[in-house]
Amino acid sequence: MYRWCTDEVEPHDRFDYWREVRAKGLFGVTAELERERRADFFGEFSLSQVGNGALVELKASAYAVERSQTDIADAPGDSICVYQQLGGGGWFGGMRSGDFAIANGSFATSHTDLPYRTAPLGAAGFHLRILKIPVSGLAPQDKRMRELSPKPFDDPTLAPLLDACFADLGEAATDKCSLAALPLVQALGHLALIERGVVRPGSRRGQGALRTARLSLARRLIAHHLKDPDLAPTRVADLLGVSVRHLHMLFEDAERSFSQTVTDERLKQSRRLMQEAPERLIADVASACGFESLATYYRVFNAAYGMAPGDFRAQASAAR
Predict the structure, then answer these.
(1) For a Cys-Cys bond, which of 58, 81, 137, 199 suits 45, CB 3.0-4.6 Å?
(2) DSSP letters spanning the chain
(3) Would you say residue 73 lies in a domain?
């Protein structure tokens, strides 16, 4: 993962460097900002190669961005972009499909080699993620993929699936886990193509993308509801909007079953709690992680790690 921040440049040079080296040289866009506002400019981003795509998270104070025909000719990308708006909102314009605003937490998609203009809606500036996937890395090879001007996602049922995949992809990038990243990249790309009518939801690729995304969301729902000792497949299936049978089918191709995933997440959470608050009673830790009894917690913890919770806590404290 590559990270960069304008703090590395002298204040009077920050926007000029961002415009010429980062915006134009790295992202292939033209950046503009009134001269009197440039002294206060701030920008930072991270860039990760994930699977067969590139993931960027960008935060910057407000300025205007344009991807012009000249920019496209100088730096063609031939890729599909999936955008996730984080914080504030954004405006897109200058496209054949018309202007639109994208709210915090919303998603949009486009092909890289079509012109647009964009700017943040508020004074807070930009905060977004962009996943760029080469067209050659997605199937089918459909000419409509190169006709996708920027457009927000209209299907609200896709938003939680996209959010879960983006969150997992960010973790995979941090952990440098390329094997975990590839199916997430493909799922996000094909969900975008489902939204734009290029891939049918019932097709093999559409179903594969939905399975990957639903499994990602199911795991996050489990993590969110760990404290509930009665956490059961019916609860997660209802939250996911699928049948219990379908939920179990999602976990059939995963490393762990539903119940194994719940137990593993509870154990990992208990370890984090003991490391963060070593003075906390082990019984409180077990209860906070949804174990039905202290005896069950000791038995499961010892089976997983070959030691009692108290021994783990002592080791963690000694290592501080």
Answers:
(1) 58
(2) -EEEEGGGS-GGGHHHHIIIIIIITTS--EEE--GGGGGG--EEEEEEEETTEEEEEEEE-S-EEEE-HHHHHHS---EEEEEEE-SS-EEEESSTT--EEE-TT-EEEEETTS-EEEEESSTT-EEEEEEEEEGGGSSS--GGGGG---EE---GGGHHHHHHHHHHHHHHHHTT-HHHHHHHHHHHHHHHHHHTTSS-TTSHHHHHHHHHHHHHHHHHHHHHTTT-TT--HHHHHHHHTS-HHHHHHHHHTSSS-HHHHHHHHHHHHHHHHHHH-TTS-HHHHHHHTT-S-HHHHHHHHHHHHSS-HHHHHHHHHHT-
(3) yes
Same domain, 10 and 145: yes
pLDDT tens track for 33-75 = 999 999 999 999 999 999 999 999 999 999 999 999 999 999 9
**Domain count of the chain?**
2
Q: Is residue 287 part of a domain?
A: yes
pLDDT-derived band at 176 (thresholds 50, 70, 90) equals confident
Q: Helices 204-224 & 258-276, crossing angle to 10 degrees?
A: 40
**Position 91 pLDDT exceeds 90:** yes
Tell me how crowded residue 211 is: count the other CB atoms within 10 A of its CB: 16
Question: Which domain covers residue 279, as residue numbers?
Answer: 265-318
The domain that holds 274 is classified in CATH as 1.10.10.60
Computed over every residue of the chain, the mean pLDDT equals 93
**CATH number of the structural domain spanning residue 132:** 2.60.120.10
